[in-house]
Design a protein that fits this description.
4 helices, DUF3575, 54% strand, signal, DUF3575 domain-containing protein, mainly beta
């Protein structure tokens, strides 16, 4: 059996990291990172993070980005999805890291770290639909908004190569997350909007891992909104470039 490219890549990173244990690493206080995780989860995702060393073995970080809601092809048995007229979204976050002095042989931002984080995600999507459960198919459009607010703690490891490049892996990141969704139907139709809203909601929340279980049996209220508090999680894969004044240790 041939080893997978991912395992070969991981082995290379680990070998390179441990091979540098005996080297002095220059101290650059800033790292600009590209978050590749959301590129796998969402459409047109462009998220950048900035990490800055604040104290020996401590750092703070900020994240901003743009992303779109995942493409949904099946909205329900009686709902035909047509074109998406609008799509957009954002990510904003902040974190503080403590690089474990006893676990790491090098200064931050290299090695094992823990710390709190906060993130908020937002998505907007507008789409045309056709409802077919009536005698005559009826056209409408829905406007949906999703907001997620997460406060949690994370454990991760950051590799540094040649004092310039970094590979940042968030391995564990549980959080308390507030999930807020709102939807309204627009158009000249005669069907009951409550039934259609909840059918569309079931299809959309399946795009968020674990959210379908959290919102089980939840329905929109009379104003077309749902709001629930639950457990979330975070994992990330970021590639970074380090910059700033060089100081040899």
């Amino acid at each position: 059996m041939k080893p997978s490219p991912f395992l070969l890549l991981l082995a290379f990173f680990c070998q390179t990291a441990f091979a540098q244990d005996s080297l002095d690493v220059g101290q650059r206080r800033n790292t600009l990172k590209l978050d590749l995780t959301h590129n796998l989860l969402y459409r047109n995702a462009y998220n950048l993070s900035w990490e800055r060393i604040t104290k020996p073995n401590q750092s703070m970080g900020f994240t901003v980005g743009y992303q779109e809601f995942p493409q949904v092809f099946n909205l329900g048995e009686n709902i035909q999805a047509r074109r998406e007229s609008e799509a957009g979204g954002y990510k904003v976050g902040a974190e503080y890291r403590f690089y474990l002095r006893k676990e790491n042989r090098h200064a931050a931002p290299r090695g094992v770290y823990i710390g709190p984080y906060f993130t908020t995600l937002g998505f907007n999507t507008t789409r045309d639909i056709t409802y077919t459960a009536t005698t005559e198919p009826q056209d409408a459009s829905y406007v949906a908004k999703f907001r997620l607010y997460s406060l949690g703690a994370q454990l991760g490891y950051q590799f540094v190569f040649n004092d310039r490049w970094s590979l940042d892996l968030v391995l564990v990141g549980p959080s308390i997350t507030r999930y807020n969704a709102g939807m309204r139907l627009e158009g000249d139709f005669e069907f009951d909007p409550d039934d259609v809203q909840n059918e569309i909601l079931d299809a959309l929340i399946e795009k968020f891992p674990g959210l379908s279980d959290l919102l089980n049996d939840k329905e929109f209220d009379s104003s077309g909104k749902v709001d629930v508090l639950g457990i979330g999680y975070r994992y990330q894969f970021l590639v970074g470039y380090r910059f700033g004044k060089y100081k040899k240790k």
